[in-house]
Structure formats: structure tokens, C-alpha cells
Amino acid sequence: MLGQFRHLHTDIYGNREFVEHLRNRGKFFDHEEKRERDLILIDYDDPARNVFEVTEEWAFHNGHYGTREDVVFLINGIPVLVIECKNANKDEAIALGVDQIRRYHRETPELFVSQQLFTATDAIGFSYG
């Protein structure tokens, strides 16, 4: 199944396809039972059965580039939200954060296939996309 996710396009189309999996509309082939089954990534009926994590300085490397996101929210190990934090004393801090997220997307687009939201904050202002 993981191999199927590795073949998703690293653009808005791959992101759109992945959101269908997050909505539990995906399928996988069960080789033992020799049939297709529903793929359940998130239990929406019983949220307590999911694992929710928040990490600081989450590192990702794709073999060419590495990135370090300030804060990442994961559901069942799937990164769904990135928060880029900047110093409020810097001029244009949020713009710097958005530029950094754009660089991450350029250098490690695989990470953003599962991302559903990204944000940049300087503790005063807040931008999201």
C-alpha cells in the first residue's frame, strides 16, 4: 500500500487524490484474501482510536534535499498540517515563513502530498493555505 502512495503526483493533483484516501475512499488489494478492500486511514466514527501527534522540528529528507518543519501535526503518522514559526521582531516575518514553505514544497514536494493545510505565524500574525 505504501508503494501506491509513493506514486502519487507531487502536485495539487496528488494532494487531491490523497485527500480521497484521508476521507477513507481508497482501496487496496488484500493478497491473502485475493480481493479488494476499503482502506481506512482515519477512524472518523471513533476518533479515540486514532493517534494524534504534534512534533517540533520535524525533519524530512527525500534523497536530494532535507527540510525541517517547525511544527507538524500528524494523524496516524500522516503529516496533515505544517506550521512555520518566525520571530515576531523580524520585518516581514510571515512572508519569510511563507517563502520557506514554498522552498520546502519545491525541494521536498513528497512531504506536501499528504499536507492539507500549512501555516506561517510570527505569534502575532497568522497566514494559512
Feature tags:
alpha+beta, two-stranded antiparallel sheet, elongated, 7 strands, 5-stranded mixed β-sheet, 129 residues, single chain
Describe it for me?
The chain is an alpha+beta fold and 129 residues long. The protein has one domain. The chain is built from 3 helices and 7 strands. It has helices spanning 2-6, 12-22, 93-107; strands at residues 26-30, 35-39, 52-61, 66-75, 78-85, 117-121, 126-128. A 5-stranded mixed beta sheet has the order 3-4-5-6-7, covered by helices on one side. The protein has a two-stranded antiparallel ribbon with strand order 1-2. β5, α3 (93-107) and β6 (117-121) form a beta-alpha-beta unit. The two termini are 28 Å apart. The model has no long low-confidence stretch (mean pLDDT 84).
SSE inventory with pairings:
Layout: H1 2-6, H2 12-22, E1 26-30, E2 35-39, E3 52-61, E4 66-75, E5 78-85, H3 93-107, E6 117-121, E7 126-128
Overall 3D form: elongated
Count the DSSP helices: 3
Structural class: alpha+beta
Query: Can you tell me the residue ranges where pLDDT is under 50 for at least 5 consecutive residues?
Result: none
- What is the number of E strands? 7
> Roughly what percent helix?
10-25%
